[in-house]
Amino acid sequence: MLEKNIREQIIDLIHRQVVPAVGCTEPMAVALCTARATELLGQKPERIKALLSANILKNAMGVGIPGTGMIGLPIAISLGSLIGKSEYQLEVIKDLTPESLEEGKQYVAENHIDIKLKSGISEKLYVEITCEAGENKATAIISKAHTNFVYEEMNGKVLLNKQVEAGDGASEDNDDIQLNLKLVWDFATTTPINEIDFILEAKRYNMNAAEEALKGNYGHCVGKTMDRPISRGLFGNSIYSHILSKTASACDARMGGAMVPVMSNSGSGNQGICATNPVVVFAKENGNTPDELVRALTLSHLTAIYIKQNLGTLSALCGCIVACTGSSCGITYLMGGDYNNICYSIKNMIANLTGMVCDGAKPSCALKVSSGVSTAVLSAMLSMSNQHVTEAEGIIDKDIDQSIRNLTSLGKHAMNEMDIMVLDIMTHKNGC
Hints:
The protein has 432 residues and is α+β, with helices and mostly antiparallel strands.
């Protein structure tokens, strides 16, 4: 068992990285920043100016805003200002009512909101909101993490300033314990259950989101489609099909604008869903014990957190690679796998899914999630037969941590030009 101080540091890290969120985290971060700027202003803004990093803009353009039936940033900003409470964090607009929605729509229609790309920054996660009313002006800035306020100002008086030189956002907090896979494994498999069973909250949130999807037609209905008779004829009525359906359904609901919270991972609701639902479904249908489920979920979520430490909060690489790699580890553990099998699963995942591009948060993320989860199950099964991609192939290294760094270096550095092109394509389509 790891020393108590090490366990406490890791538990604190999980508590900060695995948190509830309503809707896609990027527009909710913008809504949160707007809520705080409005609170500083102390009155309803007459004008709201939003300056955003490219990755925030990319991930907020096409996603449904919970409870609104609308997509995109204007309504998120409007509601953040009108009803948002910064104390709610990423659940900032959970007090939404039909009346406040109509007020928010009217506020958007009156053209109070100006949204622009922030120039001259290297941060991939950056939100700057300025609210004005009469002669009063308030500014709030979030940077590097979705709820990390680094600057606040009211009428020229600086109230908070934690800004640092622009970085790549690879580590939101330099004081975080730096993980490696063996540390992740040892923590998940040896820590007393009572210290980590809080992770079951992720099960409650994210499986509930999957059930919510059945009540409506959210997004592209990927999960519901997989439950139809014709789909069962193709995929069977199996653990595998249930894993895909329950994971895709939760993603459908979240990206389609359902007013339902999910438990996120490393700033992404979809990552939280992918790290949770496949593991939960497998454990239930495989007959694993409650303690085994707790350890598998911990292994899944902490593996995702570890990879994101190297990758950064936002990148050109689809986050489902990260989270589904975590769930593959969790499933491998539930199959009876040891540390070597976990390493094999990760190598199989990296070899298969590297290069999946993030082209923004949107309903079709459920399709990418399905691809990731499908690969997670296959990678786990191969690992249990000691089948794995070797260091002679592609970007895989004999050392598992180096293999992960090879993956993240592609997403953090090599794919930056691709990220720019993706945003350019998205912002220059007909009708955009």
